[in-house]
Design goal:
By secondary structure, the protein is mainly alpha-helical. It has one domain: Phosphatidylinositol 3-kinase, Chain A. The chain is globular. The relative contact order is 0.14. It is found in: Cytoplasm; Membrane.
């Protein structure tokens, strides 16, 4: 059954409620926005030392994603980029957004002992995709 939300309700004026709802939406998906089968490939890509090669590799992985994932990711990252652009007001840098959204959008299917290491890479992947948005999603 579809839930009807009244977006005029005063609770939606609190940005933390909106952010929490957005994160919960992505967290509750049957599979993360970055599908499980791509997790290790994205982790390997973020480890590439050469920045140009790293961006190129991430771009190529993003292009391989299922269309709904790609389209959603492009819109979400475009929006998060706008948030990062107002960092002086909202204190949300690309690094902060990586910390907030990394583990929600990108996670391994089975949690292993490498959780702390994975979290670092999850954050870095989101951060890179925000800071290099035009190179990754541009035509």
């Amino acid at each position: 059954p579809e839930e009807k939300l009244n977006l005029d309700d005063s609770q939606w004026e609190d940005i933390h409620v909106v952010t929490g709802a957005l994160k919960m939406f992505f967290r509750e998906l049957p599979e993360p926005l970055f599908p499980y089968r791509y997790f290790e490939q994205f982790v390997e890509a973020i480890k590439i030392q050469d920045n140009v090669a790293r961006i190129k590799c991430i771009r190529s992985l993003v292009k391989k994603l299922p269309r709904p994932n790609y389209d959603t990711m492009k819109i979400l990252f475009e929006h998060l980029q706008k948030i990062a652009a107002k960092e002086s007001v909202n204190l949300m840098s690309t690094q902060s957004l990586g910390i907030v959204f990394g583990p929600t959008l990108l996670r391994p299917e089975k949690e292993t002992g490498n959780m702390a290491v994975h979290m670092l890479y999850q954050n870095q992947i989101v951060e890179l995709m925000l800071s290099e948005y035009s190179k990754i999603f541009g035509s």
